[in-house]
Amino acid sequence: MSRAAPRRWPVIAGERAERYRREGLWRAERIDEIVLAHAASRPGAPALVCGERRLTHGELAAAVGAAARRLAALGVRRGSPVVVQLPNGVELVVLTLALSRLGAPPVLTPVTLRAFELEHIVSVTRPAALALPRRHARFDHLALGRALRDGHPGPEGPMALLVTGGRPEDAADTVDLTALCAPPDGPYEAGGEGEPAGPGDPAVCLLSNGTTGRPKVIPRLHEAYGHQLRHTPAVAGVGPDAIYLAVMPATHGFVLGCPGVLGTLSAGGTVVLGGSAEPAAAFELIEREGVTHTTLVPALAERWAEAASEPGTPDLSSLRVLQVGGARPHPRQIERIPEALGCRVQQCYGMSEGLLCYTALDDPDEVVLGTQGRPLSPADEILVLDDEGAPVADGGVGELLTRGPYTVAGYLGDPAADASAFTTDGFYRTGDLVRVHPSGALVVEGRTRDVVNRGGEKIPAAELDLLAAEHPAVAAAAAVAAPHPRFGEIVCLYVVPCAGRSLDLEDVRAFLRSRGLAGFKLPERLEVVDGLPYLGIGKVDKAALRRRAAAR
Ligand code: AMP
């Protein structure tokens, strides 16, 4: 099943790459080597906790080695990605590291994505295999996996289906992923894993929700992602004694590596994998495992602070740092956290394409509550430009452009997206409007792109415009962000009905769901109107609609 047809992985080349190597920002290391560095020196130290399963650093390294060998035996090869759509669990971590070692990058896909998005991801990545749960949250992932496999017969054979929770009758056409990721019975002997990846090979692929299309695939290369993993633990105060709780999906870059799961392991700490970010479940894990660090989006952080004051709350005194990011929090959403949860707040701002910003753990309140932090690396380059592409005056608002040692140079197989998102000299246009605070930290003021940020979940509005317009009773549709007290923004869909037809929210949601759209993207408000406002050039005036949605 090897699908070794070459893919063009966008790389940073030339003078910048040479400089990063010369200055030691990039090292000839793979990320699995960085993450498993403590296995040899402290093999008995706890590494992973998931429900009743516990793995030490030594066991984790052995499981990764064994999984890499088993994957190689299945024909997974350097250069051919594997789509990994798994919830938080041991298999997600072991498989991610094993695939990155092979240079067959896992394409980390949220379990919430459905046929609409997965069709596109499979077409772009042409994976050798799909890794998925048989069922999760009442959705039949295996049925979708089989449909994708049958619908995409590659020249080198069908995709393999690697499945957790499979039944005996599935054995005919699936591979048991839990067995594939299990530590070996005896002592692990290295070897037989095939050709390992080099430092310039892809380690993982993250997904980004663009403005117009379906998810874009972001290849993160070993030497560049390694820079991020080596530097993020210190910023968050994560060392060998840290116990990091992942309650949000570890398929997202923020939870995976900021420092998150991979950064904590690389520092020799312990990762607790949770399945729910609901305060009741998460608080129990914090008490049981003595959790010191975790990561939340603003809406959840606010919920946790509220829930912590209820009687009978478990003991949360082990918690030291709560990282808040993914969307800009209102100061009121985070100011109560130090008192309610007894820990420090660290604001984090960044993107799957690279750049990460953090407030420092000893920053004054004004910076912690009022900014989204400073860039991680002194080698991160930042431009804040006005509409004409000129630098704004000090403290002015403009679009943030960035390049640096861990920001990518492009997407996989999407030259049109590359041309609009990257400048010719390698800067990534973030689409975020920022200003620089007197402390040097960035403040995110808005976006230039047509994306709704629902408490950290990014929803490309143009995708909804097109899909909703396919509804037989819809003449025209436009989705915009409407303000929401908890999520920051939700999707408000403006629709013009066809003559004599009526529409309601449930009807439109059911239609979009039937088109295979992920549930978190469904509109939560519907405004039925006689016509949409247009700009002179025939484009829907989304700014006017956003103002209207905010005024209601
Ligand atoms: P993603 O690639 O899914 O991580 O999304 C990255 C985008 O999320 C950024 O370009 C911002 O628009 C938004 N974002 C992430 N963190 C923050 C934050 N702390 N404040 C404001 N926006 C944020």
Describe the structure.
This protein is an alpha/beta fold and 552 residues long. It folds into three domains: 14-44 and 57-226, Rossmann fold, CATH 3.40.50; 231-447, Rossmann fold, CATH 3.40.50.12780; 451-551, ANL, C-terminal domain (GMP Synthetase, Chain A, domain 3), CATH 3.30.300. The protein has 20 helices and 27 strands. The longest helix has 18 residues, at 57-74. Residues 208, 253-254, 325-328, 347-352, 372, 430, 432, 444, 447, 453, 458 line the site of adenosine monophosphate.
Name the features.
32% helix; 3 domains; 5-stranded parallel β-sheet; 9-stranded mixed β-sheet; alpha/beta; binds adenosine monophosphate; AMP-bd_C_sf; GMP Synthetase, Chain A, domain 3; 20 helices; Rossmann fold; globular
- Using only C-alpha atoms, the radius of gyration works out to 23 Å
Give the domain tally.
Answer: 3
* Tally of strands: 27
Category by helix and strand content: alpha/beta
Name the shape in a single word: globular
